[in-house]
Amino acid sequence: MSNGAGFGVSLLNSNPEIIGTYFCFSIFGGDISTNPWNEKTVYPNLYLRYGSAEPVFLKSEAEYLTAKYKESNSFIEVKEFTGGHYDSLWKTELSEVLSRVLKRS
Fold it and tell me: In what order do the strands lie in the sheet with 45-51?
């Protein structure tokens, strides 16, 4: 989460072949717009969750990342929950997503 999420987004951008699925809970703050996003690259499946009370610049990064994923036809599931950066809903959301995704595997 948070700073680690920024590293993860940079890694999935630069080496998409080594990550199958990325769970990003909270947003990154890693200036992802400086990464080279390629429309022809299929990026790892991404499950992105963030709070409605996050700072605006962090929410903007989520919107940017969502747009880049859609341009490349990569899978992204985004949900904005009611709450902030340190909200307890992260645990609930993570359990729900992991249960659902792993059940399919």
Answer: 21-25, 45-51, 76-81
